[in-house]
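Predict both folds.
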Amino acid sequence: MRPRRLELTAFGPFPGTVQLEFGALDEAGIFGVHGPTGGGKTSLLDGIMFALYGDVPGARERDRLRSDHAPAGVETAVAFEFALRGEDWRVTRAPRQQRPKKRGSGTTTLSPTATLARRRGDVWEPAAEGVQEVGDAVRGLVGLDRAQFQQVVVLPQGEVEKALRASAQDRERLLSTLFDTGRFHAYTARLAQRADVLAGEVGRRAAALDECRRQALDRWESLAGPDAAGPVVEGQVDLEGLRDQAVLTAVETREAVARARRGAARAQRRLAAAELLSDRCRRRRAAADALEQVAAEAADVDALRERLASAQRAAPCGPALEAARTAADRLTAARRDRIAAAGPVVAAAGRLPVDAGAVGAAAGVLAAADPPGAGQVRAVGEGLRGLAGRIEGLLREGRTAAAAVATADAERAAATGHRAAAEALRDTARRLEEEIAGVEVDHRDAVVVGARVEALAAEAARRAAEADAAAAVPGLQAAADAALAAWRDATEARAWAVERHTDLLQARIDGMAAELAAQLAQGAACAVCGALDHPAPASCPSAVVDAAEIDEARVAAEAAAALADAAEVEREAALTALADARGRAGPGAEDPAGAVAAAAAAQAALVEAAAAAEGCPALAASLDELAAERDGTCAGAEELERLAGRADDAADRAAARAADAAEVVIAALGADVDVVDTARQVERLITLFAAFSDAGDAERSAAVTEESCARQLRAVLAGQGFAGPAEAEAASAPEHRQAEWRAHIAAHDRRRDTARATLSEPELVDLPDPPDLDGLRGDCEDADKVLESACSRLYVVDRAAADLGLLAQQHAAGLADLAPLRADAERVRRLADVCHGAGTARRMSLERYVLAAFLEEITDAATQRLLAMTDGRYSVRHSDERARHGAASGLSLVVGDAWTGVEREVGSLSGGETFQASLALALGIADVVQQHAGGVHLDMLFVDEGFGSLDADALDNAIVELERLREGGRLVGIISHVAALRERIPAGIRVTRTPCGSRAAVEVADLAA
């Protein structure tokens, strides 16, 4: 990293904007930062640290970095430009701060911001945005976190000696970052993981063997019982012995099953013979019981035979009896209906409002007759028909009057309707007048709006373009994010490919350990670690890395680098497209929905104006149509008024006709008689008389039928030998009852014949006593239980023998596989312990061993500079002495004093000596890092104070060493109050303090002079 430019605005003691161009100091190589105390020299380093890491050294708060001298409207910001690996970068940050509100009084809080950009030609292209994202990106670029940056690049005031006095753990983290030795830690972790996996596999397989033995014992106990002891070999259960004993048990169990099966067959045969004899005895007893029951029922069956014969003799009399009863019932009902129909006729004749007395008297006489004569009935009917004719004529006159009244009412209603319709048409005419006025206003407005169509079209097109660009922003943002993610993945893939190439190179080097191991001798010191014991000398690795494999990894690394470069090009294209879309979208880029809404509103306004312009001719035509409709409506109202007058005249004529017809009815019936009601009463009287006449006819017909049925019944009874109807009815019975009697008699005869036939069978004669079936069934059940138990036992034994055989086979195979796996696990565990440091006397891990080698190079480089600074007195050395309390060793520092010949702790140095040693160590770190070209590029060094603790000679020596740094192309900055530094280092940055704040500017002396 090499600084290019620093810009501070309202930062620390600087109220305005300070711009420092470090490029002007490149030729000098080393420069100083001079100025009065409190002027802001250290604030320049704070600005660099805040820009890179968002924080500052010391106790200063990052949210209190704003200058107290700055105007309220100026916002605090820091921008730092630097070069790294041939590319220019710029990081810009602003802390959390207060600014006045744009509207009203008071202040508002601004959140911290950060951006990272890379130069492409003359354009700065964004690479990251956001405090967290920029912080991660800067740490990835620089390769150091803030604490490590302060130990090797920017040495803040009071913290120069931090790297010198750092603990072994902090020094390990710093060196691991500087020299990218994390792969050795990864090697160790992979070995430990492999050892854990192998140990877990050994444990799993051992547990599987234990489970196999446990299952075998369970199977054996299920076979031989819980207290049975199985064979044991060398303290373990003998699975093969258990299998053999199970096979013998299976043979014995099969013999027991055969014996049980024979016993069960004998019991079944005895039971079958006994059941056959028992069935014969049961049949003989059932036949004897049935014959006794038939003899007991013989008398009842004979009586039933006689009852059945009487019923069969009475069967022909049944239809005649039923016909005589039906005819008598019909005659009684007809006489009752005729008497009931006479009463309503008399009552209806008495209620007539006209002269109908003769009709009523005649109806009364007919009702008293039993039955009435046919001539009498016809005479009364003719009188009723004559009365109905006279009432019908009056009814026609009444209808004529009613029709005339209805006609008059209809004409008057029509007149009222015509007048109402005329008034409605006049209302319509008034409404049309109002509508014509409104359309005239709309027509004038449409003419005005139509004139703005072109301007609204241009506005709608502009808004639509902004909306399209705003709608594309999220997709382009997603594409930019995806391109950034792909670039990161490609960068990680490139790092992995480079790491694999490095790993293969390292493996190639590690393979040389076998050559060193071949030179070891028992009791002789190891050339690498110095140990006298060699418990595990390296052997030739199973997989030797050759040059072809290394070349293949190199080609893969180069391909991954090409893919990473392509991904970077795609990321830059995506960011360019995103920026272009944001520019075209304008303010809508942050509010796509608002842009779409504005475009929709503009388009709606355009559509409305265009529609208004297009509607002007239609509005003009509508005005003409409305005027014509208004004129037609007025004419229609006048015509309806004329129709209403004609309807009033027709109503008066119909009323006169109704009065003439009503006078005729009143003259015949009187003023109080309703002719319609009288007609209805006459019709009802005629209907009632007709019903009375029909009832008389039915009564006479029923009397004739009853006499005929009585004669036929007397003849049938005499033919069947019955004295009268009562005797025949007593002897008769329904057919279904006779069928039941016949079935009962037949069943009795069948049971008698069947019982006699059964008792005469030869096999049922002279039978012994019935056998004991329950006892024989119990014997069979016992034999079946014995057989079932034997079969179940055989199933269990066979399964146990098969399972034990399989378990014995699995156990033998598992034992054969476990031994080499356990040996491999122990070997990998020992190697992992050695790489982790647990297997060495100094508890030094593989990574710490490599870091110790780098630290030794650093101390060698630092010693060269420290000897020059201290006139050959002090040197710094890496110590791998064993640490106290069993801590890891290998990264300690001691200082050698050539005057006393004694090495001592770094804490025993004085203030000036500590500064010299710390400065020498920082310079040594920079030298070694540049030499190995690791993941960190140190092209600059800033030292803040500490030179005041040196005497003149020591100061001169320190400056000489710092000047040597610029020979390697580094830029060295020194912050100090020492006047001698100002004289020796003319180029620098001058800080000026005033009551209104400080200023800073670059001063470059004439180096040629």
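Second protein follows, with its predicted structure tokens after the sequence.
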Amino acid sequence: MPSVSGAQEQPAKPAPVPGPMLNQGTIEIDTPQLVLRLVKSSQTVAALIPKKEPGFDFTPGDLLLQRSHDGYYHLGDLDLRMRTGTSGEWKSYSTAVRRTPITPLPARQGVLASADISPAFGDVPLQITRSWLLADGHLTLRFTFKNATNLPVQIGALGIPMVFNNVLNERSLEQAHAVCSFYDPYIGEDAGYLQVTRLNGHGPALLVVPDGRTPFEAYNPILGPRRESTGPAPIFTDPTPRGMTFEGFYDWMVLSQAFAENEWAKAQPWNPSTMVTLSPGESKSYGVRFLVSESIRAIEPTLAAAGRPVAVGIPGYVLPQDMEGKLFLKYRHAMRSMRVEPESALEIRRLGKKAGGDEYLVQGKKWGRARLLITYENGVQQAIHYFVTKPAAETVADMGRFLTHQQWFVDAKDPFHRSPSVMSYDRELNQIVTQDSRVWISGLGDEAGSGSWLAAIMKELGQPDKEELDRYQRFVDGVLWGGLQYSNGPYKYGVRKSLMYYEPSELPPGYYRSDLNWKSWTSWNKPHSELVERSFNYPHVVAAYWVLYRLARNHTGLVTNHAWDWYLQQAYETSIAMTKFAEGYAEFGQMEGDVFLQVLQDLKRENLTKEANSLEAAMMKRADRWNGQAYPFGSEMPWDSTGQEEVYAWTKYFGYRDKTAVTLDAILGYMPTVPHWAYNGSARRFWDFLYAGKYPRLERQLHHYGSGINAIPVLSEYRDHPDDLYLLRVGYGGTMGAITNIDRDGFASAAFHGFPDMLNFDPYSGDYGPNFFGHAINAATYVVKTDAYGWLSFGGNLKVTDGVVTVKPLDSFRSRIYVAVLGLWLTLDAGQFEEVEVNPRTKTVRVALSTATEFTPSAILRIEQPSAVRKMGKIGPISEFRQERGAFVVPLTKDGPTWVTLATQP
């Protein structure tokens, strides 16, 4: 990976030369919530400034000079594909291609600025007017199309470019967090919207909503140079360099049939693609309004206050087939009808009305994507996108079998000594990836090569399987220790970058595949592959040892190759080795960095004081560095969504609460909750297909590993603040999003391709492992009561009888329960929960533990109260149990569940 840091000073550059579009200057317009600055010659946006934060601009106004030339997009531009008549090829038009002067129109009541923009398109067969106006007190952008010809005109694609300041190019992290925004779509037809949130996570946030009937049908990227373009007609492009610091701009697609017939023909769209035919003399208008929300958490109340439909799904929009979901709909118009696509994919039943809206029970019936289309009495349509999985436990069990069977590589003659191991997989070819010119993918290194063997061991944390663990121990002793990780010499405990490398002189002629590009920088030679400097390789190894320690320590006969203390010592030494051999990158937060905190806690529980003090000191040195930085979220990339997970963990542990808050706010800035399974809880990521995917494109990745790992701090914060339901919704969305990557047979993909020409999971297993690490650390059932929605369960099925709340946990591990009304966090180091009963009146909790097994004769129960709920004392079991390492050891019976009652201690 490139070694760059966003915190580095940038060299001075020549002053930008303004383009001719700025010759007439700008005009400033005052609206109730926003200050709008328009380029006078084009009436496109030069700045969009919230009045409550006058030093901030949602658009890239600070780059206006550089971007004032032909080809650059601005808010207010328009993309079209049209044809005259009702057949033939589509022709593309864009106001951004060439800045032809527009024709201003006379002012009229309510209109702030208006122009005939037809000249900007050239030979366009329509008269097109663009107006900036106030509608219901909100700034509105409206386009009116009039067919002034004597033939029908079809609009097959209509895109309203969403140009906000997500351009991180050549900015330090401090600069980017001060001036930049990310934006996420809810591709929900008439109820759709775009939310624009500042990188620092602070308010205000901007909401772009439909003006009139302007459906959010699709979300199309505005790509970079023409070499990125595909398809029969020129695709809309912007010269701003796309890369690790610029994802690109997008078109809000109101109509998309012309794309669906061409570039998107092989994809399953989020919504059916449509087109419009304008008869001679006919006019039609489309547009968007701009709402300002005081904070990210206030987005839904802001939508509701503006009369927009609001949907809230519990536990989100990923539904295991055995789980009862809830959907709350809030809108001023009654619902006329519901339609599910595919038919019978979801079962929906109305339950009644709550303060948060009309309540529906939703159950997933058919595996895969499902679209719920709601039509209201006023004709407005709202699309809510679900993903139905097998029961969560079954999904994860399938993955474990797939990893340790289909992805199990055995070849005694392998020249790179990768046998036996869990290796990367190509689902398209249904075979192990034994060669890739990105050598780490087939070399068991980096996230893309370690991902599968990391996912395999994290599955065992909550669903241990003897056969799978026997295989995994062979991998640890035969490949990991002494192979991928040095077992002796000056770099003992160091983790090398890859077992595979490119050295054609060492291997028989023709060994390396001739269809791969071995001249790339990614084709490391042997000395490069043996380096131990990349810190990001270490947490994977630590996680493997830590899980094996936990299983060996808390179960009987599951792990047999070494004693528990060997695995814990390995985890400790590998953690220290990272800070010693990979100090350069170790200054950043690591994906899966929570595992170091888990190791430290277990060292303390085992009274290994020397090791615990050493590890704590090493981690405090890193945390002290982060505490001195404004935004300590760098990595080997200039901006990243990787390090926040560990930065949060250690700054919280060491009491640096200001930095913990900065970190959480930043996560919420790029991790939304919207009524769409692919975006809900999906932390922003857009470059790792280059390093881990089969199709290496710069592209929005949905439920990449950022989802799973960033959910860890969000849910941790929720357990500290159980009244903040927003945190639970975001965190649980990321946790559940991670299992959508697992297909019906158990193959787990790196991520979902978010561009509309694909909209599918990548065929490579890639770097899925960290994503499942997050799922494994987070898997839990939450029992919650809210004023708006009543009693809820995230991860289980809930019922209330005579005031007693009973929940059956249905999360993938069934080893963690959080009772929000009591601030009570129950976790099992061994055993599983069958049921939990909560009596709010008596403040007692009863838990049923699964029956004893050959490997788990006792449950090991930990009781924590991370939130100091008012008037709650210390909670513990009313029966006497032996305590060990701070946990209660509960003997299990073989003839049914074992019940344990918890209550406030006298």
